[in-house]
């Protein structure tokens, strides 16, 4: 069997390419591989993505990568990754995130990969030209946003080391680190009073 270690996924943010990315991520989790997204366009030709699509893409990106990945890390506070088993049986509603992804990549490997995803999310949210849900540019020029992004990257790396140690006590502690890193940005840019636009 061929050992897959790297997957290159073209991305133009269309529905088809998002589906391809989801499949690439599933394959990567299964094989313990890394996924690299690439977008190529001719010089001088602007991207043909509408402003609305860019807003939706950024929101979808945050919901599809750091949300499930952080919850897999949080699950280690109550679920021992080493006790997980891959199963072909239908998943029951109400199960943990770890159980949901167990058929793709479970155990400590899945936790470690989720930590890497958290760390890499910091790089994704710093890519220029993206818009927040309210249509305003992601505040890349703000010092606090840069600091929050660096904190997220650091939390992901710390979580990865804890996952490699397979120490449940370490995972309980690092779950707090990841939660704090997420909350720092959420409190400023996401959790705003009703009626007020998110972002700055």
Please give a structural write-up.
The chain is mainly alpha-helical. Helix content is 55%, strand content 5%. Helix 5 (107-124) packs antiparallel against helix 6 (143-165). The protein starts with 5 loop residues before the first strand and ends in an 11-residue tail after the last helix.
**How helical, in percent, are the residues?**
40-55%
- Mean pLDDT across all residues, rounded? 78
| Biggest sheet overview | 2 strands, parallel
How many strand segments? Answer: 2
Strand content: 5-15%
- Principal-axes geometry comes out as globular
**Spans where pLDDT lies below 50 across 5 or more residues:** 86-91
**Subunit organisation of the chains:** single chain
- Helix-strand topology string: EHEHHHHHH
Overall SS class: mainly alpha
């Amino acid at each position: 069997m061929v050992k897959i270690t790297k997957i290159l996924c073209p991305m133009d943010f269309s529905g088809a390419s998002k589906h391809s990315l989801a499949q690439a991520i599933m394959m990567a989790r299964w094989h313990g591989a890394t996924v690299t997204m690439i977008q190529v366009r001719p010089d001088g030709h602007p991207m043909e993505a509408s402003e609305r699509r860019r807003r939706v893409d950024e929101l979808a990106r945050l919901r599809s990568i750091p949300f499930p990945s952080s919850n897999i890390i949080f699950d280690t506070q109550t679920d021992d990754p080493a006790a997980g088993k891959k199963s072909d049986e239908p998943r029951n509603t109400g199960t943990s995130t770890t159980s949901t992804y167990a058929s793709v990549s479970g155990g400590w490997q899945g936790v470690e990969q989720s930590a890497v995803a958290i760390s890499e999310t910091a790089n994704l949210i710093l890519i220029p030209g993206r818009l927040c849900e309210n249509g305003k540019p992601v505040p890349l020029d703000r010092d606090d946003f840069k600091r929050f992004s660096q904190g997220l990257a650091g939390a992901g790396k710390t979580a990865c080391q804890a996952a490699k140690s397979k120490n449940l006590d370490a995972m309980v502690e690092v779950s707090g680190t990841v939660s704090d890193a997420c909350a720092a940005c959420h409190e400023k840019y996401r959790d705003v009073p009703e009626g007020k636009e998110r972002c700055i």
